[in-house]
Amino acid sequence: MTAKIIVFANEKGGTGKSTLAMHTIIALLRAGKKVASFDLDPNQQSLTRYIENRKTFVMEKGVPLPLPEHTCWTPDVAKIYTLRSRLDKLAHEVDAIVMDTPGAHTDLGVEAMTLADVLVTPMNDSLVDLDILALVDGETLKITGPSHFAQTVWSTRQQRMLERKPSLNWLVIRNRMLFNKSKNSQTMSILLNALSRRIHFELVGVVSERVVFRELFLKGLTMLDFKEENIRIANTNSSRSARQELCVLVDKIWGTPLLSEPVSAIQ
């Protein structure tokens, strides 16, 4: 068994990496996969706090929710392991390794991208955030060149080739989509489709803006925790749409469908 390494990366903060990483982790666990998770941001520790909130919920409510084998990559951990050596050990113990990286350019984040089989880049659906992928002329809205992050991805792909590793599968997801179709959204669609061909990534759908994602964080819960004692269940159009969006993302990441039956979301 060799684990699939999934890395969530974007050099800009506040794009939903930790939330989507957590939902991917829980989807994999609920599909019967063994999962190890890594938080490579020792300052923010958003994924770590999400998992700690979940552990607290489990203890207080007595609900046996699935949890990954988690590591927060602090300086103390780095004194014992290198990232590569730790992943090499885990690669034969779990089915998937999910890593959440800082919202900035760091050597550790770049190393994680080099080791990844799948790179997931969430980005807010805004022209302000488009510069994470490309330089765009403000007057003509034409793409003038790749961004620093896109060049970093290209470098990691080159490194993988030198190490004779399979090609990196780069997935980009439009996050926090508004429900109304604005001119901004239409422009984003045009530019992202052009970029996907130019710098070789795959657009994998959208995740709409919903307050529930912020509320779930405090309890350590996800939209995929359902039919559990002491958890209120909702089955609204909004929750069904949210689950569908997340399932599309996770299926693309894993390569095959994982959640074959509809689930009810937490309210």
What do these coordinates show?
This protein has helices at 17-30, 46-61, 75-80, 83-90, 107-115, 148-162, 183-199, 212-219, 237-254, and strands spanning 4-8, 35-39, 69-72, 96-100, 118-124, 134-136, 143-146, 169-177, 202-208, 233-234, 265-266. The protein is of the alpha/beta class. The N and C termini lie far apart (37 Å). Helix 7 links the parallel strand 8 and strand 9 (202-208). Helices cover 42% and strands 20% of the residues. It is built from 9 helices and 11 strands.
Average pLDDT reading: 87
The number of distinct β-strands equals 11
The number of helical runs is 9
The fraction of residues in strands falls at 15-25%
Shape: globular
Quote the distance from N terminus to C terminus: 37 Å
Gyration radius, in Å:
18 Å
Which residues form runs of ≥5 with pLDDT under 50?
261-267
Strand order of the largest sheet: 3-2-4-1-5-8-9
Notable features of this structure?
11 strands, single chain, 20% strand, two-stranded antiparallel ribbon, 267 residues, disordered C terminus, 7-stranded parallel sheet, alpha/beta
Provide a concise account of the structure shown.
The chain is α/β, with parallel strands linked by helices and 267 residues long. It has nine helices and eleven strands.
Write the layout of secondary structure elements.
Blueprint: E1 4-8, H1 17-30, E2 35-39, H2 46-61, E3 69-72, H3 75-80, H4 83-90, E4 96-100, H5 107-115, E5 118-124, E6 134-136, E7 143-146, H6 148-162, E8 169-177, H7 183-199, E9 202-208, H8 212-219, E10 233-234, H9 237-254, E11 265-266
Parallel strand pairs: 1-4, 1-5, 2-3, 2-4, 5-8, 8-9
Antiparallel strand pairs: 6-7, 10-11
